[in-house]
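User: Round two. Same drill as before: sequence, then structure, for each protein.

Assistant: Same drill it is. First protein:
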Amino acid sequence: MTSSTAVSNPATQRRVAFATIIGTTIEWYDFFIYAMGAGLVFAHLFFKPAGEEIGLLLSLATVGVSFLFRPLGAFLAGHFGDVIGRRTILVITLILMGVATTLIGILPTFAQIGIAAPILLLLLRILQGVSAGGEWGGAVLMVVEHAPADRRGRAGAMPQIGVPLGFLLASGVMALMTGIVSPGKAFLEWGWRVPFLLSIVLIVVGYLVRRSVEESPVFTEIAERGQKTKAPVLVLFKRHWHLVILAALVFVGNNTVGYMTTGGFLHSYSTGKLKMDTTAVLVASTVAAAVWFVATLIAGRLADSIGRRNTFLIGFAVQALMAFPLFWLVNTATLPGLYAALILLSVGLGLTYGPLAAWYAEIFPVSVRFSGVAITYAIGSILGGAFAPTIAQALLEATGTTYAVSWYLLVATLVGAAATLCLRDRPGIPLGPDHEAEQASGATMFAPNVSHREVAGKQ
């Protein structure tokens, strides 16, 4: 078996895709259920002494703080993923996320234990950040490295759809709880805890599914040859730092806009400022997540037919066109306006998220691929989504209008589009260890693109 043909049979590819979807859905359910709790109840339960407005800012800030620890998770997972394998890291990150989420569900509030409550909440959110930092890279490489070259785009969309599915599940469960439990006292006392406690059930399912899949054939080949890099993170930043920066900025364009919904800002704005019904807003978010899911799947297919780069540019165009209409529609304080805003935004988000996995995997050489993918994604998350809800809330309070927030989203989108234009599309590039030289060259538009035939001719 050569590295150029090191792909799995169709049955194995389907098992890996299913395991990836299940695992990432559960991971992101845990992550997003926290963001919804931050937008809806944590300000009252954990930061009430700070006052209503400052308490909400602090609550949303805890959503962002976890992103600062994603690089730690990415560094650890990247190192060990390149050294001991993809599958083991996926199981560990899944368990870590589930434990942190479940513990939040039993956490005492400020009224019960004082300042220790928000401190413990923050620590558990940090654990979620570490887990999320390591999760995505492993999931991406497991599915993309199992796939044939002409189907990497749609294969890479599998871990991507876990994000909208996780958001759909989180918003659906939270909507169910606000619908069957009084949104007042009962929900604040115990109703909000149920979605967090459900994580313990989901984590068992995810663990069993992920343990059942085979290791990536690319990593298996590296291990058999004894070609594993001892310090992949150091090599990454020494030789490929420019790729990390550009690819991270691509993700900034998606992540900043995405966290208007998944980060809790639109939930708090719609239910607080606009006085819309909490359950109705959560149901609208659930529908938008379904659209995001479909758009992400379509983007994976488009990435295989028209290229990763072109699909991104179409998505960024949709996002840019929606930057101002998003709030024009939401500010009608009507459900049709909210639905239209969230659905149209979700189309752009799907188109700028679906191709990301395949493109990232094809940018970095195999010896540092896990480290490159995971760390780049984590840095993009910090620069983009980490404090996007907090920044949006601060802009709203400082200006009294959502126009400043729209400008913020437009600038982030243009940054992502500019970075996209700087990277080269490389569909079909061999991913195995025989083609390290080709993988390490020509990923940006500023460097010559060297094919494996040219590399072989020089040897």
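Second protein:
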Amino acid sequence: MNELLWIILLLINFGAVLLAFRFFGKTGLYIWVAISAILANIQVLKTVELFGLVATLGNIIYGTSFLATDILSEIYGRKEAQKAVWIGSFTLVITTVIMQICLLFIPDASDFAQDALVTIFKFFPRIVAASMIAYVVSQSHDVWAYEMWKKKFSSDKQIWIRNNLSTMVSQLIDSVVFCFIAFIGVFEWNVLLSILVTTYLLKWVVAACDTPFVYIAKKMVDGADGEMHTLKSESLA
């Protein structure tokens, strides 16, 4: 059951990235990066069994942030992709600060959400600290690596090479940094290492699956540019 839900969630997340790009352009990708930064750090608190292995949730939606920056790198360049990284970082910091203040409010007798919020957001600062460091390091590497590989493999047919080479290494960096900062002292070493391995494997699968969506995004832009050129030609005629 978990495996089926994971595949469905994968398709929904990737589809949502393309919809955000289709309707709002690069602004939509910036919005998605902010959404993924918040949701990934909440989902990661839940551990599940997937394909016979223990893993945390959040791998898919976090992986889509790499998809978003890769699309930005491919179409708009390194500067716009790096801007998305800073937007995600800003979102994490502000969310943490605001929620920590919210937890300080004394709940009314009728309140039913305080305990649940405490369970999630009291642990949130450590998760965010781990995520912030891992996020900035890995995403910045991804943006840099994508640009580097784009110079070596520059044709549209080679998008899959630069996308996978940049993302898969970046995901490894992210997994190692995040798991050790977030979960040392929380889980036994064998559980922590199991989470690290399975987290990276799942992120690797997500990274491999996102490649067609970079091509689709590129085609969407090329198609829109072609249509605009046709309209301009017709108006001049």
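The chain has one domain: 2-236.

User: Perfect.
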